[in-house]
Each structure stands twice: as structure tokens, then as C-alpha cells.
Amino acid sequence: MFDAHVHILDPKYPLDENHGYLPEPFTIADYRNRMSGLGVTGGAVVSASFQGTDQHYLRAALAELGEGWVGVTQLSPDATDDDIVALDHAGVRALRFNLRRSAIDVTTLAIQAQRAYDLAGWHAEFYVDASLLLSLEPVFAKLPAVSIDHLGMSPEGLPYLLNLVERGARVKATGFGRVEIDDVADAMRRIHAVNPKALMFGSDLPGTRARRPFEAADLEVIRDAVGDDLDAVLSTNARDWYRCAPSLGK
Q1: Which of 26, 111, 187, 220 could form a disulfide with 9 if both were Cys (CB 3.0 to 4.6 A apart)?
Q2: What is the pTM of this model?
């Protein structure tokens, strides 16, 4: 299994309050204990809003997790080409834009995403309510590779999300206790029908600010939605997208 959406909150590294919120620690040891027995052999550590553009925690997490793991980072607007290349060497494979928790200039967003793709082949990941995708169409039309977190969050945005999927976007099957979608299985079926390579499982642990965190039963919901393509959604779709080979030693 490849867990395409994990947050590591190590108290050794500072966090910034976001809307007055600071999460409890969630270390690599906590993560391994929480997912024990589920066969996780790799995944993506995703920078959260309260981690800002700090790279120290992410470098440390990737070094400790080792083979099979990649990073998804947030970059300062003044990050250099050398910064991006160095992060790529450390295992970072994508750039994240949190449009639900942070104000981001769309021009800066487009320039930064294109530069990261040109330099290192990174795709751009978006935490955004899919109902906003139509207004962001001029930006998304120019981006070479895009993924959307948490099934796009809202049912109203699903038609716009499906349009993006038809054009090659990937979607994280994550945060079932976070989204505003009543029938997540139906949403996944519709996404999967457009492109069987689109969906990528992630636990979204520790589930900060969600109504509930990941549960093993969520895997059964995915199974019901995608049937015989379960292995692709739980593993190969994301490994291919993140350019991450399976770890054979774990």
C-alpha cells in the first residue's frame, strides 16, 4: 500500500498557528503504530498549513522514513531554482497549494508550479473546494500536471472535478471524515469511471480538524467503489504519479 497523504507533526520542529489552531504532535512512530498491519510500504509526506514553507521537518521525515517515501512541499515565493533541485534530491516530488487555509496569488501560483515542473517534474497539488475550480480554470488550463486533495471536498464541485479528471488530473481518495460529500463511494465511482488511474488512496492522518480521522473501514468503501482496480487505487496509481518505485526491503 502507498499512502499518498500523510502529515507528520514532529514537536522538534516549530509550527505556526493557522486560524488559531495548533495540532497535537503526530510523529513517524505514531504513524507507524496507527497503520500497523495494513501493509504500508511507502507514501507521501504532505506539508500542512501550519508548517508553512519550512523544509527542515520534511527533509528529516523523508530521511527517517527512507525508501519508498516522497515529499509534497510548500515553497516560499523567493525559493530559488537550486532550492527546488536540492529538495528534489531529498525526495520531494510535488508542490502543494492550500487554497482553503491560505491566501495565494494565482499569478505567483502558476509561475511557481510551472517552474517546479520544468526543473524537477513536480506536479501541483491543491487543497481546494472543487466548487471553485471553474473560477480557477484559466490557471488550471496552463498547468502541466495537477492533483486535487480529498475528493474535491464538496458535491457541488464534482462536475468541475470530473472535467479536470478527463483532462488528466488525479484525485486523492482521502479525508472521508473531512469532506462535505455524503456519498463518497458514489463520488469515487464517478471519478474512476472517467479515468481508472485518477484515484490515489491516502490516510490523511492524523486528520487534523476533520470530524473523524481515517478508519480501516474506509478501505472497504474504496473497494466497493473501484472493485477489481483496488490495488491500483491503493498503490500503483500513486507510485506512478509520484515516480516512486515499491520498497522491496520493507
Answers
A1: 26
A2: 0.95
**Distance in angstroms (rounded) separating the CA atoms of residues 179 and 191:** 15
State the CATH class of domain 2-241.
Answer: alpha beta
Whole-number Å distance between alpha carbons of 212 and 60: 28
CB atoms near residue 236 (< 10 Å): 15
Sheet holding 2-6, edge to edge: 2-6, 42-46, 69-73, 92-98, 123-127, 146-148, 170-173, 199-201
User: CA nearest 92: which of 245, 244, 214?
Assistant: 244
The one-letter amino acid at 36 = S
Convert the pLDDT of each residue in 185-233 to its tens digit.
999 999 999 999 999 999 999 999 999 999 999 999 999 999 999 999 9
The span from the CA of 167 to the CA of 23, in Å, is 36
- Going by C-beta distance under 8 Å and a sequence separation of 6 or more, which residues neighbour residue 141? none
